[in-house]
Design goal:
Blueprint (H helix, E strand, L loop, with lengths): L2 E9 L2 H12 L5 E5 L4 E8 L2 E8 L5 H9 L2 E8 L3 H10 L10 E3 L3 E6 L9 E6 L2
Parallel strand pairs: 1-4, 5-8
Antiparallel strand pairs: 1-5, 2-3, 3-4, 6-7, 7-8
Length: about 130
């Protein structure tokens, strides 16, 4: 893992959250996009070399909708930038981590992504990210 790529924050209202984070960080979101496969709209803010990803559900039964219903708004996951997502998934599985995704899938911000189950990471949902080539 090369660095923390972003922190994912679940929000109820993407427009209100965008305004709040624009005020907090002093910069506008550089990108907003919908990821239909995850039933989510995302907004990204640059903070130094890292990013903040806001996630708002487009479906109450989607992953973010369920998260907010259960835990409320707040930090959803921590994402790490990796050189080779396939090798990193194999390494983590060999180390005994439970993978949510055994194969990477297309994610926001032109990334391949995969998740590690929080049951094996002290309650923290971990995302692996690699730039699509």
């Amino acid at each position: 893992m090369k660095k923390i790529e972003h922190l994912g924050i679940a929000v109820k209202d993407i427009d209100a959250a965008n305004k709040l984070y624009e005020q907090l960080l002093g910069v506008p979101a550089y990108k907003q996009e919908e990821v239909k496969s995850e039933s989510v709209i995302t907004s990204f803010f640059k903070v130094g070399e890292s990013k903040i990803e806001l996630l708002a559900s487009t479906d109450e039964e989607g992953p973010i909708g369920k998260f907010i219903a259960k835990k409320g708004e707040g930090i959803h996951h921590i994402a790490f930038d990796v050189e080779d997502i396939y090798k990193e998934l194999a390494r983590l599985e060999a180390e005994g981590f439970q993978l949510i995704n055994k194969e990477p899938k297309s994610g926001a911000d032109n990334k391949l992504v995969a998740f590690v189950h929080p049951k094996t990471t002290n309650g923290v949902l971990v995302e692996l990210c690699q730039d699509k080539k």
